[in-house]
Amino acid sequence: MFRNRVRVALLGLAVTTLAVAGCTGPAANSNDGAGSAANKSLNVYLYQEPAGVFSPLAPVSGPDGQVMSLIDEGLLGVDPSYKLQPRLAESYTVSPDATTFTFKLRSGLKWSDGTPFTSKDVLFTYTLMANPKTTSSTAGNYTGVEGVADFASGKATTISGFSAPDDNTFVIKATKPNFGLLALIGSVWIMPEHILGKDAPDAVAKNAFFRNPTVGMGPYTFVEYKTNQYVHVTANPNYRSPAKIKDVYLKPMTSDNATAQLGNGGIDIASYSPTDAETVSGFNTVTTQEKPGAGFVRIALNQSKPYFKDAKVRQAFLYALDRKQIVQTVLGGKAEVRLSDFAKANEPAGLNDYAQDVAKAKQLLAEAGWDSNREVQLQWVHGQRDRDATSTIVQSQLAAVGVKVKLVNIQAAEIPKTYAEKTYDMVLYGGGNYAVDSSTINGITACANAYPAGGNINYFCNPQLDQLMAQANSTADEAQRKSLYDQAAKLENDQADLMWLYSPYGLWAVNKKVQGFQAPGSQDALFWDPASWTITG
Fold first, then answer.
1. 37 has pLDDT over 80
2. Phi-psi region of 140 (alpha: psi -120 to 50; beta: other; left: phi over 0)
3. DSSP one-letter string for 3-58
4. Distance (Å, whole) CA 53 – CA 55
5. Which of 436, 432, 441 lies closest to 522, judged by CA?
6. What pLDDT digit, counting tens, does each position of 240-275 carry?
7. I need a labelling partner for 468 at 20 to 30 A (CA). Which of 33, 211, 292, 497 fits?
8. CA nearest 443: which of 469, 467, 416?
9. Could you give the CA distance from residue 216 to residue 110 in angstroms, rounded to a whole number?
10. Is 315 within 8 Å of 364 (Cβ atoms)?
11. Are 79 and 63 in a shared domain?
């Protein structure tokens, strides 16, 4: 029965999308007439429509982030092996007690408009990011920095833990040992002070610049965003190692359309669904790359609503699902069932796998007093085969334990409003990178990081978990740190803060004319080093 439902769901999606929707913009590898590779353009698939606010202050959005990974850079970046690497920083040092972090910037860097780049831009950016008045969606990540509390409360006008002693040096000081701070805030994209510096903190996030960010430090510069068509970026002439491809067009479309356009040359780089693997393998014009993802697909239950506060309800929802079958049937085995927020390599043994147990789910719902007449809404952004099919399966399997679910297809740009107003019940989404350091999980679990201060969009709060995470992050002894993180993972697994579904593998197809592309992880991962991409032939 389950397999039949899945097949019906996938067949329906295929029928709907086989007639490839037109997507305007240049043809792949179009030539501007100069005849050199540098004048050719590249078409890249975006798995969702961007919200169109390309700002480090805005709530995290996968497609917007992928665009920004071409036009912006941070002091550090995360490479395809999920390791931090210097980008705008030439080097960095960490004091033995992990309280002082010193970055040396590359010399001679310029913004894309030719304005010199200095540590003042870094200081400007970090101060904005830590200031709740800017509506920074990650302000909660900066609470471990010295002086942030006094700055946020109005007792201080600057943050003592941030300093720029000279044009090429930026220093962060933490209030106490903080071994995960680099992973948490080291790669934030730097904003131009000469463009935004005149805005008051409570106005800067609304600056029109973020919808037309034509000045940046990345290898490409923003040109325009044609809604429902493409985002056009062009090579930044002032980048330290200028991009070798002149123009890149990032095109949002369904995964089915992207696969079809891989075959006809309309798209050069795209992630693809496991269900399309056989089709893609038949294209003689592309190569493929496969990589385990660092994030995961999940369903957040809005715990600001009383009926999701009881952990028994959240546990029951997990027991209702057959996630192994979802991985095998919807994703063709190209994913791993997720057991917690912690990356697979970092999770301890003995976590509850919440294998499907319908009787257990019904028992927990009864104990929690779940009202079987209540209807809850599950919202998600339509267009990815795995997420579309999974939404339908979740609806069906929750119905089997007495939970009525209404599916709601929503546009990506509409989602932040549902977070801010706490109006949603359930949202299916994916992404994140939790493989760099376990401390990053704090960004989606800590009480202090409840939206809009951070990425805890489900409003989960467990002070004991926060304490364990804080203790682990401040412990110099690696074995002890690991032990504390293991305790935190078991507690988080027991509390079922999220409905963890699966960690999808990144499946990428690349036109053979394109060289230098490294699969960054799953379909929502940021692109790595696009300046090194080239087109041959």
1. no
2. alpha
3. HHHHHHHHHHHHHHHSSPPP--SPPTT-B-SS-SGGGBEEEEEESS---S---TTS
4. 6
5. 432
6. 999 999 999 999 998 889 999 999 999 999 999 888
7. 292
8. 469
9. 9
10. yes
11. no
Residues 342 and 452 grouped into a single domain = yes
For residue 51, what are the contacts with CB-CB under 8 A and spacing of at least 6?
58, 61, 63, 64, 412, 413, 415, 416
Q: What are the pLDDT digits (tens) for 138-172?
A: 898 898 999 999 999 999 999 999 999 999 999 99
Does residue 5 register a pLDDT over 60?
no
Are 361 and 495 part of one and the same domain? yes
Which CATH number fits the domain that encloses residue 340? 3.10.105.10
Residues paired with residue 406 on neighbouring β-strands, in sequence order: 377
Instruction: Kindly tell me the burial class for residue 107, based on how many C-beta atoms sit within 10 Å of its own C-beta (0-12, 13-18, 19 or more).
Output: exposed
Polymer length of the chain: 537
Give the pLDDT confidence score for residue 178 in this predicted structure. 93
Rounded to 10 degrees, what is the CA torsion of 44, 48, 51, 55?
-50
Average pLDDT of the chain, as a whole number: 91
Residue 273 has a pLDDT of: 86
Cβ burial of 206 (10 Å; 0-12, 13-18, 19+) is middle
Residue appearing with tokens 């995964």: 255
